[in-house]
Inverse folding.
């Protein structure tokens, strides 16, 4: 299994909560970026790829011509005959019928559309530059173009948002009947506008909203297969699930991370520098770590426990530290054993990070 992640680090405007690397969209800069990225990708010529995820940033901010150029290059460079899933991220304000047609023509079979909130005032608070109506228009266009596998992103636990507000939001989203939902509590990260202005959230309210979400989505036919992800039957994200299974993937683009040939790496997070390094044939990685067997098992445990139904094979806990920690977690019932699989107990999923951090040396 080998995936491909491509980072498109361009946006019209940075959202106030976002700490992903991105820069302001500039046509000339993007043209140079795509040329550099695809030049660099040639070293992986004819590699067999079974899933692609183009994320950002805002990939849909690219022009029609730029999208076509990127997708054509991927088709020329990689072997895509066994590809099962090809995801492209969109924002409502930069989605168009012509862009959707191009995506369809080049084999994209899954979309992820950033909604974040169903209320226009909340969207404005988050720094989004679209309203709920614009999202619905983009979503309807995608359905008309034949995209049946669509993920919707949503954020909960905003300051001032109560349980009634959140339940109403879920009601609206459920009417869309999407195949997949990714739901995240608002997190205040350093280097974001929210952090700088002192915005805060309430963990207890977010926990209650999470519990209510699990209940409501289960009643509406969604499988809670990963900590923050729900899907209808057979709608689980193939590409993202392979991250959590600790399978390898190539990461292309400024700020992109990758895991290839037992090395986990991260590329320089600066577009112009990224372009220059490729042009001058200089290494563009800012992190590059070999994953030995011990670290591989630790990462497999931490990532794999995110898959709530699948879990992690008990053989991964053979190291003394892992076995001792597992025994403690089984005793306090934060983890459970089913056949030869170790899974997180459902009522402790919201505190997932605290539990898995115990397995880190």
């Amino acid at each position: 299994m080998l995936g491909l992640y491509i980072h498109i680090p361009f946006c019209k405007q940075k959202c106030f909560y976002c700490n992903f690397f991105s820069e302001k969209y500039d046509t000339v800069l993007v043209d140079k970026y795509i040329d550099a990225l695809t030049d660099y990708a040639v070293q992986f010529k004819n590699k067999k790829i079974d899933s692609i995820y183009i994320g950002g940033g805002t990939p849909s901010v690219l022009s029609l011509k730029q999208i076509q150029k990127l997708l054509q290059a991927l088709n020329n460079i990689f072997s895509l005959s066994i590809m099962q899933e090809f995801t492209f991220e969109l924002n409502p304000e930069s989605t168009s019928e012509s862009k959707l047609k191009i995506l369809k023509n080049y084999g994209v079979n899954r979309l992820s559309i950033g909604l974040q909130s169903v209320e226009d005032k909340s969207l404005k608070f988050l720094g989004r530059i679209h309203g709920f109506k614009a999202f619905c228009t983009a979503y309807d266009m995608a359905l008309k173009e034949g995209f049946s596998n669509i993920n919707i992103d949503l954020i909960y636990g905003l300051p001032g948002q109560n349980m009634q507000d959140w339940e109403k939001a879920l009601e609206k989203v459920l009417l869309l009947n999407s195949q997949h939902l990714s739901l995240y509590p608002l997190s205040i990260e350093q280097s974001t506008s929210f952090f700088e202005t002192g915005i805060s959230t309430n963990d207890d309210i977010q926990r209650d909203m999470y519990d209510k979400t699990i209940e409501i989505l289960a009643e509406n036919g969604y499988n809670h297969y990963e900590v923050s992800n729900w899907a209808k039957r057979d709608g689980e994200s193939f590409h993202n699930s392979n991250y959590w299974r600790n399978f390898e993937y190539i990461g292309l683009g400024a700020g992109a991370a990758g895991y290839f040939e037992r090395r986990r790496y991260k590329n320089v997070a600066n577009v112009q520098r990224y372009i220059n390094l490729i042009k001058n044939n200089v290494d563009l990685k800012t992190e590059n770590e070999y994953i030995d067997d011990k670290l591989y098992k630790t990462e497999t445990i931490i990532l794999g426990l995110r898959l709530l139904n699948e879990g992690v094979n008990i053989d991964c806990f053979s190291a003394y530290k892992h076995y001792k920690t597992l025994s403690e977690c089984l005793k306090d019932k934060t983890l459970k054993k089913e056949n030869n699989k170790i899974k997180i107990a459902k009522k402790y999923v919201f505190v997932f990070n605290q539990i898995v951090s115990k397995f880190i040396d």
Q: What stands out?
A: The chain has two domains: 2-243, 293-359. The mean pLDDT is 96. Residues 293-359 form one domain. The first helix runs from residue 27 to 41.
